[in-house]
Amino acid sequence: MEKKTIIQLKNVSKSFGSTRVLTDMDLEIRDDEFLTLLGPSGCGKTTTLRIIAGFETPDQGEVLFDGRVINDLPPYKRNVNTVFQRYALFPNLNVYENIAFGLRLKKPSEAEVSEKVKEMLRLVDLQGFEKRDVSTLSGGQQQRVAIARALIMRPRVLLLDEPLGALDLKLRKDMQIELKNIRKKTGISVVYVTHDQEEALSMSDTVVVMHDGIIQQIGAPTDIYNEPANAYVADFIGESNILDGVMEGDLRVRLAGRSFECVDKGFAKDEPVDVVVRPEDVDVTAPENGMLTGLVTEVTFMGVHYEIIVEIGGFKWMIQTTDRVPAGSRIGIYIEPDAIHVMKKSKYSDMFGDYSSYSSEHEQLSENTEEEDK
Amino acid sequence: MKAGLLQRAAAAPHIVWSALFILAPMVFVVYYTFTDGSGSPSLENITRLNAGNYLMILVNSLCMALIATVICFLIAYPAAFIFSRMKKKAQRLAILLIMLPLWMNFLITTYSWMTILEDTGVINTLLSALRLGPVHMINTPGAVICGMVFCFLPYMILPIYSVMAGIDPKLIEAAADLGCSPAQTFAKVIWPLSLGGVISGITMVFVPSVSTFYISQKLGGGTFQLIGDTIESYFTGTAVNYHFGAALSLILMVLILISMAVMNRFGEGEGGEIR
To answer: Which of A49, A51, A55, A90 to probe the B interface (max B CBs under 10 A)?
Structure first.
């Protein structure tokens, strides 16, 4: 059964000065959905969130809430609440008063406030912290207070702007699980903004991959990973070997100088395409049994598996294997038809090469970029 | 400990300075207050405060300073708020303009006010030309308050501005997000968070206003006396009496300390401090 749409963005565009940050954005947020806006710094994901919250007004297009246009509705009249990147807790109020802040505006009885704040503290596991000064809390605890402060308003949609960005890895993982649990318990829809693809894949029902103010792909995490819409998505989500190919007909694609069986059809004959092969979908075999053969140029031990770089006809593939393969050896590789994913050519086609610059790329990826993207 | 010695050596000039120019004068004030002309202990200076119209002068000075402080606050708070919302570049310019009068000699600005407010001054010339005047302004309490406000306004604006500029804009967004209308955001977030600046601003305006003598002499024209004038007259006038002058100073100091303590207590109660 199709879930009910709560918020809808129709053809939304937004510029700051001469910089265009969103172009013709269409998006639906449904009931009981965990939707993640994923993209690098400056892709427009935070702006999208701010438009939903009411902090920015779109230049063009419409924002609908339950089918009603809310473009000009100020934030305080919207039934959504935000958890800010660096929490934005009120420094002059203690934990209890921070959580009670929004509730108090509705002038409820003190008993009601106390009951609801207690309920929230239980939900985020902060019982006994009522009187604590927010500045004495750790990042993770402040995060929980921020979530409780938003959830006490019973929003239809909870907006989270890189909420875990400031936390260390371990805490991040814990909070990811906790956030998922909190969401399940409350049934509130979530729009989550992050640049961390792993986080997006592991937490979401729906992932929206954005780049340059344009939605590249919307889909379930598995769809996004297994069937990226274009080279950009394939590169951004996980590791991928993106090769130039030519369709020889339905279910046949030519790449790396050889014809492969694949599961994609509907392309024109001889149409140039991008082909994605995930590193974990490539099997390593003896050279004589391989569909392609190549030279192992680099081996990195990753714990569960080895990450090896194999040069095949001048293109450096990344392959993940549990077999130990020495650098400098020749190996064969075998690719199942369903491990090959064919994509239409796009403007991103030539932007992503092979893994020749492997080590430096790795460094870049591990860099945890603090961002304030607008 | 070498570092300790070095630190102490670095602090020495400050300690000497404090001892010479802060502590020693205080000791003298207290000494003079409780001695008579011959140097023997005496409470005569204190009891003399009851006589004459010193109490009136004191109350008068406090009232004038209070009015000047309130006016400064009413001007400074919205100004500081507006400055803090402006673009960074405009903010710097605005603050520069606010500080500009501080770079000029305080006596010169007061003299300028004399020429502005005089019966034949700038304003009255203008009013006469428009057939609306002249209005007598110089040598009135209003003129003195005007001078105080002009001289001390920057000391109100700057601390309030600096606190307001430090308020994270995300807090204001958070308040709106949680259902605060702009008025409620002001009452529940901006005001409590700016209170620290308001209190230091009030202190920085009220204290010099209450003890000023120059402004009241020049713009009040000696038609009425403030406590600052009275104190000054016992140190430089024809009726020099260090002992009684010191007693007046001491009383003024105690009153100021009390009002500051009350103010700070009020601030703590509201919890308006930025961390």
So the answer is: A90
